[in-house]
Design brief:
The protein is mainly alpha-helical. 80% of the residues lie in helices and 0% in strands. α4 packs antiparallel against α7.
Length: 221
């Protein structure tokens, strides 16, 4: 059987629309995940063992349960409990954010612990409030040190968004599946989807390296 990649040209607008959905879902999930991960990382650093146990338990759940199961629990199961129906995008954003927060919080925890203890002691001796110290002194340094981990999480999250196609959201993978249904040819649509994801990963990696260089240069000034 001959390959006919030329037929994919007419489906490119469809793929690019789906690409926009993938990028929006990834960006929204990562942003929400970071917002959840910040207090979660502080919980894990609490001096109280019981509070630390809550953060550890949270992370163990999202590490131990397959991500696809998490998607199904949020999309199909959660509405049964809270009485609110989620769209595919909302369910995906919530699931990926909660999952991502578990991993990001671990990176942030390591980054915070890597900050020189003397800076914290100096801030406390000067009477700097804990919240202000974390916001202005500790967190900026911690985020810089975990920047590579955040870039890797962005890539991991972007690839994991393919799971949301199982509940009907038209992302790049779902778009390729619909092209397969329309053309009865599988190789060309799936290779096209793979190419989209590969280019995305390469672009994110390059932008991440540029961001790391910019951060390192700003530290040297």
């Amino acid at each position: 059987m001959t390959l006919e990649f030329g037929m994919m040209v007419k489906y490119m607008p469809y793929f690019f629309r789906a690409l926009g959905v993938t990028l929006k879902l990834t960006a929204a999930s990562l942003l929400l995940g970071i917002l959840i991960a910040i207090p979660l990382s502080l919980i894990k650093l609490s001096k109280y063992k019981g509070i630390r146990a809550i953060g550890t338990f949270y992370t163990s759940i999202f590490r131990g349960v397959p991500l696809l199961v998490q998607v199904f629990v949020v999309y199909f199961g959660l509405p049964q409990i809270v009485g609110i129906t989620f769209t595919s995008f909302q369910a995906g954003c919530l699931t990926f954010a909660l999952n991502s927060a578990a991993y990001i919080s671990e990176s942030l925890r390591g980054g915070i612990m890597a900050v020189d203890l003397g800076q914290r002691e100096a801030a406390m001796s000067l009477g700097v409030p804990y919240g202000k110290m974390m916001k202005d002194i500790i967190f900026p340094q911690a985020i810089k040190s975990v920047m590579p981990s955040l870039i890797n999480e962005f890539i991991r999250l972007m690839k994991n968004t393919t799971l949301i196609s199982t509940v009907g959201l038209v992302d790049v993978l779902r778009a390729s599946q619909m092209v397969v249904s329309d053309t009865y040819r599988a190789f060309e649509p799936y290779i096209t989807a793979a190419a989209f994801y590969y280019v995305l990963v390469m672009v994110i990696s390059l932008l991440g390296k540029q961001l790391e260089r910019w951060v390192n240069k700003s530290d040297q000034r």
